[in-house]
Amino acid sequence: MDAPPAEPGSPPAGPPAPTAGVSRTDVGGSVPAARAPTSDGVPARSVGRPGPDPLPRRVHAGYALGSLATGAFGTVPGLLLLPYLTDTLGVAAGLAALLVLLPKAWDVLVNPVAGRISDRTRSRLGPRRPWLLGAGLALAVLFAAIFAAPFGAGPAAGAYVAVAFLATATAFAFFQVPYVAMPAELTDDAAERTRLMSWRVAVLALAILISGAVAPMVVTAGGEGVAGHRWMGAFVAALIALGALGAFLGTRSAATGTVTATEPTLRAQLAVVAADRPFRALLLCFVVQSAGVATILAGVSYFAAQILRDPTTGPTVLFACFVGPALLVMPLWIRLGRRLGKKTALVTASLLLAAGAAALVAAPVLPAAAVYAVVALLGVGYAGQQVFALALLPDCVAASTARTGRRQAGVFTGLWTAGETLGLALGPGIYGLILALSGYVSSATGTAAPQTPTARLGVLLAFTLIPALLIAPATLLLRPHPYLPPPPSPTHPVDHGVVAGTKAAKIHGKATTSP
């Protein structure tokens, strides 16, 4: 039975739960014993005491399907919306960048609210799954509406896109925040969460490949211009609906979490999250790096047309080279993460991603095959950067719950997705600003206008050096903060499960209060 939220100002009732609101009876196991992390960052089971049950493959696969929705919405607007505004609707580059940025900035305010609402949702389906279904299907319908173009070209068309994008971003917040909150509630095993994230990132890579590579082809097959973008909107909407339904149905047999004690107000919850220094560092790093990745995505069409001189097949090939390696190297990244630890692996992947982006500044003098090979190197780094950042997030959530006994996964992930959304919005905004400063000429014909050498230089630098300067330095934010707990004292057995990124609960169920 769902436990009611605590009264304002009341302490948590009883000892802290072993996971972020998960009742272990939901999955047929007992409360797991405390486990100390091994040298590779994977918790080891205590001798003579049972460990947590692994998640079934169907839950791994079902949860991962939700990344079809998050990947499609995170990719296609960043890839095609800015060129759609500048080269199909005739909106000036600076104004187009603003129209793309503002709806995403709105999500920064909405996401923490969505997290708090999902934390307090009472349903026989659990607090998260109803939002996967309702908000996911709404997201699909509204996405198709973005590219419906009922007003043709011009200022009215730009205003319509901004309003439709705002509504779509709101629906996305209410899907994404509960979705990202689920791993901390599906399992209390940090290693199992990493495996869950590897499934998710693999499907995310597939979603980015399908939506990013195929969407431009659908635009071309649909006749370019407004008509082609309408067909593309319908295609991506179907992909989003498939992901939402897959995540909803695939997690129906998993632990759902219950409504437990939370801070009485959103402000109090945000204060608890803000006091978590490792989470703050991880979040800020991920936001800055997301802006760098989004800047690359926003420039794919421009880079293919102006630098590679291949506006027809160039975007598709670039996307295949960027995302394809992620599907192949994921097992290697998981092994490296076990050897080095998640944080070190995240830094390694990020530096590889930044190095590849910086190397592309030589693209104008390189053969196309060499450019595509460097883009594949970016893809390898991107895969690791995503999987380890996402694997560290539920560790932070579980650590907070173990310390406080209060389930606030929705607020943590609300802030996380708000930051990610801000980063993804800043990318096209940065790219559009550089286009405007370099004198990029917009067009209402459905094809790019001829550009000056200065404008082409802006296209190149915004795709290469600018992302590299965002991604690499952000890793310095992680240096002072450990994400693994010390082993529990052998003379003081612990009653509750310990996950990566936490400090062990004190004996007799009392939680530590230091972050």
Question: Short summary of the structure?
Answer:
The protein has helices at residues 57-87, 93-119, 129-146, 155-181, 183-186, 190-221, 225-250, 266-274, 277-298, 300-306, 314-340, 342-359, 368-404, 409-438, 453-463, 465-474. The chain is mainly α.
What report would you give on this structure?
By secondary structure, the chain is mainly α. 65% of the residues lie in helices and 0% in strands. The chain contains 16 helices and no strands. It has helices spanning 57-87, 93-119, 129-146, 155-181, 183-186, 190-221, 225-250, 266-274, 277-298, 300-306, 314-340, 342-359, 368-404, 409-438, 453-463, 465-474. Helix 1 (57-87) runs antiparallel to helix 2, helix 11 packs antiparallel against helix 12 and helix 13 packs antiparallel against helix 14. The longest helix has 37 residues, at 368-404. The two termini are 30 Å apart.
Question: Which structural traits does this protein have?
Answer:
single chain, 65% helix, 515 residues, mainly alpha, 16 helices
Report the sheet with the most strands, covering strand number, pairing sense and barrel closure.
none
Question: Order of SSEs, N→C?
Answer: HHHHHHHHHHHHHHHH
Number of strands: 0
Beta strand %: under 5%
Fraction in helix: 55-70%
Contiguous helical run count: 16
The average pLDDT score comes to 75
Structural class: mainly alpha
Q: Radius of gyration, Cα only, in angstroms? A: 23 Å
The unreliable regions are 1-51, 484-515
